[in-house]
Amino acid sequence: MNNTTVVPLPANLVPDYASPYWMNKGDNAWQLTAATLVGIQSVPGQVIFYGSIVKKKWAVNSALMALYAFAAVLPCWVGWGYRMSFGDGFVPFLGMPNVALDEKYLLKQSFNGAKFPNATMIYFQFVFAAITLVLIAGALLGRMNFYAWMLFVPLWLTFSYTLVCYSIWSPNGWLSQMGIVDFAGGFVVHIASGVAGFTAAFWVGPRIMKDRERFPPNNILLMLTGAGLQWMGWSGFNGGAPYVAGTDASLAILNTHVCTATSLLTWLLIDILFFRKPSVIGATQGMTTGLICITPAAGLVQNWAAIIMGILSGSIPWYTMMVLHKKIRLLKQVDDTMAVFHTHAVAGCLGAILVGFFADPKLCRLFFQVPGWEPYVGLAYAIPIGKYRVGMKQIGVQLLGVVFVILVNITMTSIICLLVRFVVPLRLTEDELQVGDNAIHGEEAYALWGDGERLETSIHGVDNFP
């Protein structure tokens, strides 16, 4: 036994490697919490939502598409995706591909002076990348070959998501340096997923006619559970965007819920006016469009602006979905199962433009940590002070970003779908489309007597128990 006496060093001399001088424990704890809230939006949020809002025969397949996407993104993200999105510049639209698994790299301070390590940032950004792929799946439910989906996820993350993410969110990105405003993912997540989902749906083709004509949810109450997880999880989605557990995060969370509630109520009232019935599914659509519309603006606009954005997000996507969709030939031809084009692309574009109008320069300075009035000034604030050109420039940069995201996602998603089609069919066989889950996975979500199931006659090992 070693009897050597160990004399402890004074506390002020002990190096605190677990909490280096540059790290703020509160910021780090909030960032990890916010990331987990965003993760819960996908698993179990979107898994439950997709699995319950579809026809019963597609419940397992739809849930598994979301679950697989979430899992498959992570190894790609730490392997090369994160450094392509936030690493050293490689080309104007992309960072240098590199792994993000080295211990020294993971424990270093993250970019832009964030007071937490790279490991926290990688985790936080991963859940955003993952939910983007999960949202794309919504446009493809009920007919995409699962093996094709398994190939599509890592390819799209690598060649589409990273391009947009680096250009808009990386400090070195060309749109970032032009002064584009995307508080928490209106461009990177929602416009991208809406356009990519719609494009992929075009290449995969529609569901069988029987499913297109009648596609009732198999469990509306469970669908509401998934929707509720998405709504509450959005506190982390938008509240984590400032990378600081501060006042801007508080404002972002409040604005998020104000806009969402306003949008839901607006959509519900329009449904009542036109259809004479308040629709639960309609309410969730209004909830979704409100969440998405406020995302690029959450911590950059005043509360009154969030209410206006909620009214617009509850009415404009309703109009495009219920009216324009039936008049525009392309929209009618493409079978977008969960209407991600309307709920994500349209609502995302709406929020991206409205933040260029309503962005408060004081809040922008707080978020972007830049002095003076420029370059982040909403047009509504620029006109009264005689700086309308600065405000118009902000609108122009926002529109340029919208066009860029649309073009990148149409192009890259089309190329990826065509490449995947050379390996495996994009679409399930006709027999699989008729049967659904049991033909694809050998599993079903529910065992019901009405489907030919027999009452079990064996209890606790005793046969023919009455």
UniProtKB/TrEMBL annotation:
It comes from the Eukaryota. This is Uncharacterized protein.
